[in-house]
Amino acid sequence: LAVVYAYLGQTVQAHEQAVRAQRVQHELGHQDDLVAGAAAMNVANFGQLLGRFDDALGHFEGALASFRNGKAAVWAATAESSLASTWLHLGQVARAMQVLTPLDAAVPGTFRVRRRIIEARIARALGKPGLALIREALAALGERPDPVQHALAQIDESRELDAPAAAELATNHVRDTPGRRSSARSCARNGASAARATEGARSSTTRAK
Questions:
Q1: Which candidate, 123, 148, 124, 150, places its Cα nearest to that of 137?
Q2: I need a labelling partner for 34 at 20 to 30 A (CA). Which of 5, 70, 72, 201 fits?
Q3: What's the CA gap between 57 and 60, in Å, rounded?
């Protein structure tokens, strides 16, 4: 029910149902197992969308502990990525880095995509290039990528490019995925922002001279 509310864009109701489901799971004896971890992930995901970051961080950490204890490599990788992404959103780069551990060999390629994107964001936050990581993520998606993951990876790719390259990426995305304009607009906005930043830097240099 929480997921249904989420698809309808009713995040408050989704969070309420997730909390209720977690309470029921605890009453059934699921305190620190995979079921409890999955319930905590739902609460955390919807909580952070509502800006309840302290609560979300606590639930992500609890979920991660449950998954690691249960040796659920894929779930643990998902929880690590979600926790690190939340810390990044809060500007806590060092904490985001501390969360991430080497991925288990059992983790499939599709789950490695988000990890590489987050690692690229960390690199960018540290003033380092992250394009190679984004390209690795795109390659991991394969020939028939999930359209949402592919679009998100391309948005991050555009942030690593200069303005002309970002604009070309947006144009190609519109051509290759008709009907999916929002990610292309995001790419285009990133390209425009890069162009404005470049022009601003040039103007400053000219005035300095």
A1: 150
A2: 5
A3: 5
Exposure class string for 50-71: b at 16+ Cβ within 10 A, else e: eebeebbbebbebbbbbbbebe
* pLDDT tens digits, one per residue of 71-90: 999 999 999 999 999 999 99
**165-182 per-position pLDDT tens digit:** 877 777 776 666 544 445
pLDDT above 90 as % of the chain = 48
CB 194 within 8 A of CB 164: no
Tokens of residue 137, six digits = 């993520």
Is residue 190 pLDDT above 60, yes or no? no
> What separation in angstroms does the CA of 63 have from each of 36, 56, 142?
7, 10, 29
Cα angle vertex 153, ends 42, 137, to 5°?
95
Q: Structure tokens of 139?
A: 């390659």
